[in-house]
């Protein structure tokens, strides 16, 4: 793998993946990060990496939906492997505005596959990063396996399911050397504060209401983002072509318990005299339409075949995550004030 194209590398998981991969001794190639810098793409997340690895890391601003941009990137950088993160990723936004999800997640994946197909034998691997949400919602028992039928319930999960099908079809029809991964909910540094965990951490710090949807008993399986990145790397290097791997933290929790634990950590790290526990900020709000009740992942395939296992449990991962947000007030301020957008415009110009 000499020239790895990472799409969506300025987002939450993509930027963690690039930070994880560049220093590794078992990766000596170059990374080309293609990202069109939507609201979720923060190029500042990687400015230190760009300085530290000027010969091995390059950022290209561009849209995965644009075949001309892709053709140029593939040929100029002699791409021989792809790790595809770029997506619209927030379920709530997919409910209020599904168009961008269809465009980026489905059409973008299709255009990338078309470009990859033109490489013929020069393509070593196309890895598609996907979600457990494609499987739909579980009842009180059971786990998603790689054989669970797809039953997506939100425009987001339906668009990801569609992209998964395209990737698998390109393997069967054109012999593309693909792998796929379907992962549970991630948390950790650099997550945009619209998702449950960073939103609750920041609101708790600022003594703002903590909006919990419905009865708060929806269950998610939580995984620390660096563990996800390591799983993707294991799959890229050792995963069997054409295979799907489920990735999860074996860490099922009701949303209300996640929020309570955030309150307790913030109370401990940032006690405020005279203030009651942050738990008092919890506010039950109207439920998300079509809200999936429970996700749970059976990740025995990746554990048994590739020897992957998460290094963090919920307590250690959350301690790192909350600590990171407490130590990065500047990052939070720039994201919340929109200053990171203005910086992007001075560096790369307005979006085309
Ligand atoms: P994110 O929203 O934080 O980042 C997405 C990135 O993609 C941003 O940098 C954005 O600018 C870029 N992007 C969006 N549209 C683009 C386009 N048309 N062209 C080029 N770049 C574009 O998302 P994330 O949470 O880092 O998720 C990354 C991937 O992992 C997604 O495919 C998502 O479906 C998947 N995933 C996420 C989770 C999770 O818990 N966050 C769990 C499982 C799988
Ligand atoms: P989210 O972080 O949006 O991830 P996803 O919808 O992909 O699982 O939400 C995680 C869970 O938290 C989900 O069940 C919805 C719930 N939630 C809230 O209760 N309040 C909130 O403000 C948000 C953003 C999410």
Short structural description:
This protein is α/β, with parallel strands linked by helices and 352 residues long.
Describe this structure in words.
The chain is of the alpha/beta class. The protein has two domains: 214 residues, Rossmann fold, CATH 3.40.50; 97 residues, UDP-galactose 4-epimerase, domain 1 (Alpha-Beta Complex), CATH 3.90.25. Helix content is 43%, strand content 16%. The protein has 13 helices and twelve strands. The strands form three sheets. A seven-stranded parallel β-sheet has the order 3-2-1-4-5-6-10, sandwiched between helices. It has a three-stranded mixed β-sheet with strand order 7-9-11. Helix 1 links the parallel strand 1 and strand 2. The longest helix has 20 residues. The two termini are 31 Å apart. The relative contact order is 0.14. The mean pLDDT is 96. Bound molecules: nicotinamide-adenine-dinucleotide (NAD) and thymidine-5'-diphosphate. Thymidine-5'-diphosphate binds next to helix 7 and strand 8.
Strand element count: 12
What spatial order of strands do you see in the largest sheet? 3-2-1-4-5-6-10
Assess the beta-strand content as a share of residues. Answer: 15-25%
Level of helix content?
Answer: 40-55%
Using the CA coordinates, give the radius of gyration.
20 Å
Overall number of domains:
2
Bound ligands = nicotinamide-adenine-dinucleotide, thymidine-5'-diphosphate
Structural class computed from helices and strand pairing: alpha/beta
Q: Which architecture name of the largest domain does CATH use?
A: 3-Layer(aba) Sandwich
Distance N to C terminus? 31 Å
Spans where pLDDT lies below 50 across 5 or more residues = none
The CATH topology of the largest domain is Rossmann fold
**CATH class of the largest domain, please?**
Alpha Beta
- Give the rounded overall mean pLDDT: 96
**CATH-defined superfamily of the largest domain:** NAD(P)-binding Rossmann-like Domain
Tell me about the largest β-sheet.
Answer: 7 strands, parallel
């Amino acid at each position: 793998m000499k020239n790895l194209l990472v799409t969506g590398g300025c987002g939450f998981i993509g930027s963690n993946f690039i930070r994880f991969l560049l220093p590794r001794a078992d990766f000596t190639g170059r990374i080309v990060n293609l990202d069109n810098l939507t609201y979720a793409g923060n190029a500042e997340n990687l400015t230190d990496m760009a300085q530290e690895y000027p010969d091995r890391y390059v950022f290209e601003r561009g849209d995965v939906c644009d075949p001309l941009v892709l053709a140029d990137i593939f040929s100029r950088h002699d791409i021989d492997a792809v790790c595809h993160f770029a997506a619209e990723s927030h379920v709530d936004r997919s409910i209020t505005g599904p168009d961008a999800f269809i465009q980026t997640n489905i059409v973008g994946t299709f255009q990338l596959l078309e470009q990859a197909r033109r490489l013929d034998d020069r393509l070593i691997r196309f890895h598609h990063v996907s979600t457990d949400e494609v499987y739909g919602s579980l009842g009180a028992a059971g786990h998603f396996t790689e054989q669970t039928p797809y039953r997506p319930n939100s425009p987001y999960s339906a668009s990801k399911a569609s992209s998964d099908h395209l990737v698998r079809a390109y393997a069967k029809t054109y012999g593309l050397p693909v792998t796929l991964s379907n992962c549970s909910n991630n948390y950790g540094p650099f997550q945009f504060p619209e998702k449950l965990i960073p939103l609750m951490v920041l609101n708790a710090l600022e003594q703002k209401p903590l909006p919990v949807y419905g009865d708060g008993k929806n269950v998610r399986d939580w995984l620390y983002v660096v563990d996800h990145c390591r799983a993707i790397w294991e799959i890229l290097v050792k995963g069997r072509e054409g295979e799907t791997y489920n990735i999860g933290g074996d860490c099922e929790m009701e949303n209300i318990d996640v929020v309570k634990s955030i309150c307790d950590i913030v109370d401990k790290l940032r006690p405020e005299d005279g203030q009651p526990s942050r738990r008092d900020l919890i506010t039950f709000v109207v439920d998300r339409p079509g809200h999936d009740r429970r996700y749970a992942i059976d990740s025995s395939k990746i554990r048994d075949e590739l020897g992957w296992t998460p290094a963090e449990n919920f307590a250690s991962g959350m301690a790192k995550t909350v600590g990171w947000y407490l130590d990065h007030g500047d990052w939070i301020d720039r994201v919340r004030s929109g200053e990171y957008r203005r910086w992007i415009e001075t560096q790369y110009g307005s979006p085309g």
